[in-house]
Amino acid sequence: MKLFLLLLHVALPLIGLTDAGYITFEEMQGIIPPCGTGFDCGAVLLSKYSHIGPIPVSILGLLYYATLLILGSLLLLEIDVSKWMPKKLRAYTSTQQLYTLITSFGLLFSMYLVFIMAVLIKGWCLYCLISAVTSATLFFVSWKYFRMTQNSPHSLLKAVSQKTIGFLYQNILKRILFLVDPEAVHNQFTFFGKLLGSFAITRWLTSIVFSYNSATTAVVKDGILFPNKMGLCAGFDYNGEMARILGPVGFGWHTIGTVTYQPYEGNPKPRLGRLPNSKALIVNKGLKTLGAKEVARRLTGVQFTVPVGISIASTNAHFDSDQEQIMDIVKGFLVFEKSHVNHSYYELNISCPNTFGGEPFTSSARLEQLLTVTDSLQLSKPLYIKMPIDQSEKETLQLLAVADEHNVQGVIFGNLTKDKNNPAVTPEDRKVWKSRKGNLSGRPTFARSNALIKLTRDNFYDRFTIIGCGGIFDTATAQAKLDAGADLLQMITGMVFNGPQVMGTINRELDLKNK
């Protein structure tokens, strides 16, 4: 049986390599291959989905099957690739482990392509289906052999994923993605995440590869059980489209939005930029959203895999008076209070610097006005405030003193930085930033966020649940926020720069460190 499975490790990639090679050759000749009755290869191979950026999907398939053919041949010859890997990865990258990991990605990507054909193109490519069947068979053959030859396949595969995926992402995939417009990449990941979250099997497979939770990673705050401390902050999943996949990816909780009462298409493009030397993103989305009513409608009845919050702010528009702007926020809260969305908390975003009115509620007087009104709503969920990070300690303490007098359970430090003299921004990146609209996430927010976390803990003790956000890229930066006094953590930019495995890695390493 083992020999038969090993032979399939070579034979199946040969089938896939032949299939992908034929499509690639025909595409290079500008020819649509004959497809047979009932198929429409032209509709699929000429669609916009046949390329990822400048790269044809068929070439990715060619590389995928060629890699598996090489690994399968090494398995037959009993040659272990780990001796050629970096020292930190050698314990996690035997030939079989790497083969199984790659086929896991291949299965997920094949399911994505089948969905594209079935739902968006509504046409079938015979060769694409052959590849999808081959890829699925490869996964199950590899997984079967892996289970037969390893003592603890589930925990071992997680360890493999948390080391190897990061290496592959940072050294291969990120280099490709960073050649493409960041908003286009974000939109593709949103679509792919929505697809993966739509099916129980893809959620399960994603969880196997990425997530890490244990009894000791869980924490209870404000009556909410968080499977782990690492959350996704607002600004990534604008409309809750990825709500069912973020738990399996490794997040213990996440915030949808920011959502405003009225829809807003976003600020003029470009809305996203990268500053790789400073490990930062330039963000100028301006609270892009479908609006509270539409988001609530889409989320009604959705069974979330982890606790989910709704971030609410005033619509990015001109208001004739302070009262009108406050009522716009109230209307956003009321939409979700009256809905059947199964969310666990609210975030009140008072600090987005990329909107028409800037940060209108970051003075103590205006925050007092706003919180007096939100108190009257008697919200059914805990309320966390998303705080600015560029204000002085005195101004921050004034805002916290106001929050202390109202029905506020927690504070988040913090939002984007707009400090053009931030020392964490390199001189060359500062020149780029000054030529672009928007403000920075990532490493430039790290030190100031930590300082304000500590300020809050030192002055208000356990009054607030403190959520640390800004500049988390790995376990060391996550631990620094916890040491400063944070109860929970949030990230986005660290995932963009270090890969989708980073949440599981942080959770695992924090868990091992605290045992």
Structural overview:
The chain has about 525 residues and is of the alpha/beta class. It has 2 domains: about 1-175, VKOR domain (de novo design (two linked rop proteins), Up-down Bundle), CATH 1.20.1440.130; about 210-515, Alpha-Beta Barrel (TIM Barrel). The chain contains 18 helices and 15 strands. The strands form 4 sheets. It has an 8-stranded parallel beta barrel, surrounded by 4 helices. It has a 3-stranded antiparallel β-sheet with strand order 7-8-13, covered by helices on one side. Strands 1-2 form a two-stranded antiparallel ribbon. Helix 9 (about 245-250) links the parallel strand 5 and strand 6. The protein is globular, with a radius of gyration of 24 Å.
Shape: globular
CATH architecture of the largest domain: Alpha-Beta Barrel
Distance between the termini: 40 Å
Proportion in helices: 40-55%
CATH superfamily of the largest domain: Aldolase class I
Total of domains: 2
The proportion of strand residues reads 5-15%
| Total helical elements | 18
Unreliable sequence segments: none
Strand count, sense and closure of the main sheet?
8 strands, parallel, barrel
What is the residue-mean pLDDT, rounded to a whole number?
87
CATH topology of the largest domain: TIM Barrel
Radius of gyration: 24 Å
CATH class categorisation of the largest domain: Alpha Beta
Structural class: alpha/beta
Give the tally of β-strands: 15
Strand order of the largest sheet: 5-6-9-10-11-12-14-15
What's the gist of this structure?
The chain has helices at residues 2-28, 41-45, 57-76, 95-121, 126-149, 153-177, 182-197, 200-210, 246-249, 292-299, 322-337, 364-377, 393-404, 427-434, 446-460, 475-484, 493-498, 502-514; strands at 51-52, 55-56, 219-221, 224-226, 230-232, 253-260, 272-275, 280-283, 308-313, 345-349, 383-387, 410-413, 439-442, 465-469, 488-491.
